[in-house]
Amino acid sequence: MDERDDQIREILDSIPERLKIVKDGIDFAVQQEYLKFTKMINLKKYAQEDISAITFSLFKSGLILEKKKALAILAQQGTLEAYRTIEKFLESEEQELKDWGVLAQEECRILLESSLSDRNAGIVITGLGGEYNRLRYYVVVRSRNDAALTDAQKENISRRFSHICSQFDSILEEIQPYQHYVAMRGLIPMDIAVADVIEGGINECNAFGDFLDETYYVTNIKIPTEAEIQQYFIELRRDEE
Predict the structure, then answer these.
(1) For residue 138, which of 162, 173, 168 has the smallest C-alpha distance?
(2) Between 64-75 and 98-115, two packed helices, what is the crossing angle to 10 degrees?
(3) Fewer C-beta within 10 Å: the chain N or C terminus?
(4) Beta 181-189 vs 134-143: how paired, if at all?
């Protein structure tokens, strides 16, 4: 094994599992755009000497489209040099294409790993991201009959959901109480049913007063706006009539 193989191994050692969860959330629309864009690239058009020019355009071109194209082409090279180039780009101050660069880096990383192993590898990318083997979710639980939650009930929700998360190897990152509902953000392992965690928390809360509705809102795509949450409640009430 030469020095280059050692460098590649060093990169791959940072991956905790064969299936890697991308930490930062990436908008679903960006993911779709990237996949559609890369499918249109004909790699046979680019000889090795073209890659140097492509790398140059990544850092010198003022055109967003040219930078997107350069990142996508470099990603599909699956080489150490391409990986380092994308890494350098992500360390620059060009935040406008950060999500695109992350997608390119992960694609390049997977190709690198595949070149050293006969086992398939993959990545999981969601709008809210994750860590290690856990995906991040945004959850909203509401009071029964839209009753105003008391301070004691809000505190109970915080304690009970923290407890249920610990039972399921999950992490409650943030909890925000409102008048009629409580919003939470947390990390749940991929091999755990999300419903088990949420419904378990609701059941534990209701053992102390039956004050939470069994319906809830959950997503790993994005953090909803207040208007979107209220629209969800309106639709629920309409269905309940």
Answers:
(1) 173
(2) 20
(3) C
(4) antiparallel
The per-residue b/e assignment along 66-101, b for 16 or more CB within 10 angstroms, e otherwise, is ebbbbbbbbbbbbbbebbebbeebbeeeeeebebbb
| Range 130-240 has CATH code 3.30.70.1290 | yes
Q: Kindly state the tokens that stand for 231.
A: 């629209």
Q: How far is CA 208 from CA 144, 178, 183, in A?
A: 13, 19, 20
Residues of the chain with CATH 3.30.70.1290: 130-240
Report the pLDDT value the prediction gives residue 17, as an integer from 0 to 100: 46
Q: Give the H or E element holding residue 227.
A: helix 226-240
Residues 142 and 233: beta-carbon distance below 8 Å: yes
Q: What is the mean pLDDT of each run of 10 residues along the chain (241 residues)?
A: 51 48 71 82 66 80 83 84 87 79 84 66 69 88 91 94 94 93 92 91 92 90 86 77 58
Q: Helix, strand, or coil here: 68?
A: helix
Pairing mode of beta strands 122-124, 19-21: parallel
Strand partners, 175: 184
Joined tokens for residue 17: 């599992």
| Distance from C-alpha of 181 to C-alpha of 158, rounded to nearest angstrom | 12
Instruction: Check if the beta carbon of residue 220 is closer than 8 Å to that of residue 192.
Output: no
Question: What DSSP designation does 207 have?
Answer: T
Beta-strand pair 19-21/134-143? unpaired
